[in-house]
Each structure stands twice: as C-alpha cells, then as structure tokens.
C-alpha cells in the first residue's frame, strides 16, 4: 500500500473510532496546516474580525428585499412570479458561481478572491438603487455571485485559520450571518419610511457595510496574510477533483444543505408578504421575520459546539428540520397572535439546521482541503436546489391565490431534509478511499 492509501485508511479508521476529523491533525505537507502557536496568537483577533465582517455581508442582499417587496411590485409592475424571480436570482447565483471559487482562489489566492466577492456584493447592492426592474435583477445577480463565492470559501478558511477552534468559529460565523440578515430585515422598511418611501435608497444603503468590510479586510489581510502562499486548500482541492461526485455521503451532505437552504430562502423571500396578506403591516411583518432571524442567532453559536461533541449529528439535524416544518405551517394556519412565538421557534430550528449543515461539511471532511472541496459541491448544488424554493412559492401563489402550496412545499422539503440530515450526520468521512 502506498503512502496515499495509508493516509486514506487512517482517516477512515479515525471516523470508525469516533475521533472527530475536526480535531484530527491535518495531514503533513498540506500548505493550510495550522501556523505555530505564536503566529496563531498574533493573528487570532484580526482573523476573527475578518470572519465577522465578511459574514455580516453575506445575507442582507436577500433579507432586505422582502420587507419592501410589495412596494417594489407596485412601482415596477412585477407580478408575484416576477417578484419570485427577483428573490430567486441571487440564490441561484450561489449555486452557479460558488463552484468557481476554488479555481479563482487557485489563480489569485483565497484572500484576493474573497475581496473580489465583497466588491461584487457592493456593486450589486448599489445597482438596486437605480429603482427599475432590470437594475434590480442585475444587482441581485452580481451580489448573488459575490455571496456564492464567499460562501464556498468560508468553511475552508475557518478550518485553516482556526483548526483548534473550528466548532466555536463556525458558531460565530453563522451567528454573524444571522445578525446581518436580521438587521437588514428589521431596518429596511423603517429606513424606507425615513427616506420618504424611497425603497431603492433603503436597498442601496447596504453598500455601506460592504464597503467597510472590504476596506478593513483588505488592511488586515495585507498585514497578516500577505506573505502566505496563494491558493492553499482550494488549489489542492481543485487538483484532486471528481471523487466526491461518486460518494453517497457527499450527496447526503449536499441534499441536507440544499433542502434546509431552500426553506431558509422561502422564509427570507416570502414570509413577510405572507404575514402582510394575513393583516400585518410592512413594518410588523419585517419585525416578525427579524425575530425569527434573531432566534437563528441564539441557536447558531451553541448548536455546532454541542453537536461537535456528539459521536453523530443525525438526531439534532433531523429534529431541527421537523420542528422548522411544523412551525412554518403553524405560521400560515394558527391565529396571528401566535406569530411571535412561532417565528421564534422557526428561527431556533433553522438557525440550528444551518449551523449543523456547515459543521457537517467540516466534520465529514478529513482536512481543510477536503472541506473546501465538499463545501464547493454541497453549496454549489445545494443553492441551485435552494433557488427553486422561492420560485415555486411564487408560481404556486399565482396559480392558487393563497399560501397553501407554500405550506405543502415546506412540509415535503422539511421531511426530505430531515432524512438527508440523519444520513449526513453519521460519523463517517466523505471519499475516505479517494481523497488523497
């Protein structure tokens, strides 16, 4: 047996013994191995600041649209199906552009690729301020492309820069994503009102945090990471290529990621209009969505830390999706006075599910190279699947005139995600005989 085969069997044996690949040492010779202790201490806080600033900008482009979607439809003449295209386009870009991230990182470096992604988010968000349907769509596509690239590179970056604190930093990352989404959902409608009903200005305001993130991240990386080899995990992953596409566990991880994301973007894109159709004002509906996302924040930090201590993550992954499906249907059918509690339960379930999806990508991979490759597959295919959710809701609403179809979609996808999560959460490593 050659050295590669021996390493593969070692990875598989670690999984069989219950040793988490998160805590297993990285392979010798991999350029993304943990730096010496002194270097880690010197760069820990700047690296954490970078993670937070990037994460803050990976969701407002989605959650800021829904609170003013009715006004956008009225001013631009979009139908519900047209509006669903507007909410679906950036999610679809996550799947279409995410798989390009490893190749870009190999050519220009992970850090430069993420900075380019932040610039795309800034540019796309600014285009929305032109206040017409073509500019809204183009801005959504550009911002979605940047978010898709950033999404794929983040798990590998976390495992590379925080190999001994990956579950904790996964929680911080997901928690910050949720903070950005919640803040955008809660403040876009009030900001529109403060600007005299100018919804385009309220959407374009989200260029400010993108510009701040781009500036600060560029300074930190120029000082801390400028001499690190370009490419790293992404380049190694691209060179290997292919094996995960024949791996059942990789597909189970991908299905879990895709289905839970589909339901998350249905909530981002359509929960506020659903609640407004039941009698909520625009501000109230936006606040209910933000409450749901705030509870995602509450679940995001402890969920990966606790789940990483378990031999398997199957039970929490399945339970989170079942609770999410039940609470969403209840939001459509229960008395409106229950919406705050139901939104909180839905947020806890979805926050936990998303944290687990990112954690599972990292736990099912033997090292940071494999994590980057699995992230590209799971998020690339998963977000293409996720894009179907908001689009289907719009089509079902146009045909049926109500939200029953959305409820059934949530139930079916939630059950599928529960099954996929139960399988993906098993204590195994993807491609243990193929990842070299």
Annotation, overall tally of beta strands? 0
Average pLDDT metric:
80
Which spans have pLDDT < 50 for at least 5 consecutive residues? 1-39, 224-241
N- to C-terminal distance: 13 Å
The CATH architecture term is Up-down Bundle
Mind telling me the CATH superfamily name?
MFS general substrate transporter like domains
Radius of gyration, in angstroms, nearest whole number: 21 Å
Strand content: under 5%
Oligomer: single chain
How much helical structure, as a percent, in the residues?
Answer: over 70%
Pairing-aware structural class of the strands and helices? Answer: mainly alpha
At CATH level 3, the topology is Growth Hormone, Chain: A
Shape: globular
Main sheet overview:
none
Could you explain the architecture of this structure?
This protein has 436 residues and is mainly alpha-helical. It has a single domain (44-424), classed as Up-down Bundle (Growth Hormone, Chain: A). The chain has helices at 3-16, 37-56, 60-63, 69-76, 80-97, 101-108, 110-127, 133-161, 166-194, 199-204, 207-224, 233-240, 248-277, 282-300, 302-308, 314-333, 339-363, 368-400, 404-424. Helix 6 packs across helix 7 (110-127), helix 8 (133-161) packs antiparallel against helix 18 and helix 18 (368-400) runs antiparallel to helix 19. It is globular and about 50 Å long. The two termini are 13 Å apart. Residues 1-39 and 224-241 have low confidence and may be disordered.
């Amino acid at each position: 047996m050659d050295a590669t085969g021996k390493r593969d069997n070692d990875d598989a044996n670690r999984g069989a013994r219950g040793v988490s690949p998160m805590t297993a040492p990285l392979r010798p010779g991999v350029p993304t191995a943990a730096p010496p202790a002194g270097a880690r201490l010197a760069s820990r806080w700047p690296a954490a600041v970078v993670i937070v600033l990037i994460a803050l900008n990976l969701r407002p482009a989605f959650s800021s649209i829904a609170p003013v979607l009715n006004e956008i439809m009225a001013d631009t003449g979009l139908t519900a199906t047209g509006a669903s295209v507007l909410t679906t386009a950036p999610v679809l870009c996550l799947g279409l552009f995410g798989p390009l991230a490893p190749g870009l990182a190999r050519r220009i470096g992970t850090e430069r690729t993420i900075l380019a992604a932040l610039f795309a988010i800034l540019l796309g968000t600014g285009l929305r301020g032109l206040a017409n349907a073509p500019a809204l769509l183009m801005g959504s596509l550009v911002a979605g492309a940047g978010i898709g690239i950033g999404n794929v590179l983040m798990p590998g970056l976390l495992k590379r820069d925080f190999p001994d604190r990956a579950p904790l930093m996964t929680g911080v990352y997901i928690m910050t994503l949720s903070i950005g989404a919640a803040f955008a959902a809660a403040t876009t409608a009030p900001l529109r009102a403060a600007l005299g009903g100018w919804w385009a200005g309220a959407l374009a305001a989200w260029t400010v945090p993108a510009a701040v993130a781009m500036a600060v991240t560029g300074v930190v990386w120029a000082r801390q990471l400028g001499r690190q080899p370009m490419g790293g995990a992404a380049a190694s992953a691209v060179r290997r290529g292919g094996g995960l596409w024949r791996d059942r566990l990789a597909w189970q991880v991908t299905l879990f990621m895709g289905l839970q994301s589909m339901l998350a973007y249905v909530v981002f894109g359509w929960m506020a209009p659903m609640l407004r159709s039941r009698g909520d004002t625009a501000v109230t509906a936006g606040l209910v969505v933000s409450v749901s996302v705030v509870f995602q924040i509450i679940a995001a930090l402890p969920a990966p830390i606790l789940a990483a201590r378990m031999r398997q993550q199957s039970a929490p992954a399945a339970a989170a999706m079942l609770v999410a499906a039940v609470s969403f249907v209840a939001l459509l059918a229960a008395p409106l006075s229950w919406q705050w509690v139901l939104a909180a339960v839905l947020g806890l379930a979805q926050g936990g599910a998303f944290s687990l999806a990112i954690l599972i990508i990292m736990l099912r991979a033997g090292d940071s190279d494999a994590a980057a490759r699995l992230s590209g597959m799971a998020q690339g295919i998963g977000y293409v699947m996720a894009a179907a959710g908001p689009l289907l809701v719009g089509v079902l609403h146009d045909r049926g005139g109500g939200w029953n179809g959305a409820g059934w979609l949530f139930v079916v996808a939630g059950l599928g995600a529960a099954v996929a999560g139960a399988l993906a959460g098993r204590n195994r490593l993807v491609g243990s005989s193929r990842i070299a």
